[in-house]
Design a protein that fits this description.
4-stranded mixed beta sheet; Signal recognition particle alu RNA binding heterodimer, srp9/1; alpha/beta; 34% strand; 146 residues; 8 strands
Length: 146
């Protein structure tokens, strides 16, 4: 069994995908736009797929590969500003230097929640909300804890 995050960006999905490609080497493996979907049944309304359903160029569904993890994303299923509350995506960096790079890249245009630095459980750990509001925890676990 696998659990995969599905993030809804309310019209900013393509911008987010481009940002993650540049910042952390994300790779888009699937991208479907609303215009590519078959016509909805007559009894369904455009609002059934969220507000982006009326904008054909918006992203209906995307799969994004980040390292060994797949995240799914869309423009639909939101009614206003996207709010990412109650969870965080955690990314393990292979070195302190890479953690510093990732943290800075994700924080570009975002907000640092906890500065990146050494802790009792990691050589580097920090929390940052990116420019889309997604919370990230960047960590280089200590070898005996990892």
């Amino acid at each position: 069994m696998q659990i995969q995050p599905y993030l809804f960006f309310n019209g900013r999905c393509e911008e987010a995908l481009n940002f993650y490609q540049k910042a952390i080497g994300a790779r888009v493996t699937v991208l479907m736009r609303f215009k590519d979907a078959p016509p909805a049944p007559k009894e369904a309304s455009p609002q059934d797929c969220g507000p982006a359903a009326v904008a054909p160029e918006k992203i209906m569904h995307a799969n994004v590969q980040i390292g060994e993890t797949q995240i799914m994303a869309s423009d639909g299923m939101n009614d206003g500003k996207p709010e990412f509350k109650g969870f965080s995506l955690s990314i393990n960096a292979p070195s302190d230097e890479e953690a510093e790079r990732i943290f800075a890249a994700l924080g570009d245009g975002g907000r640092v929640q906890m500065s990146l630095g050494p802790t009792f459980f990691a050589s580097r750990f920090g929390m940052v909300a990116d420019r889309f509001g997604v919370m990230w925890m960047v960590i280089v676990p200590l070898p005996d804890i990892g």
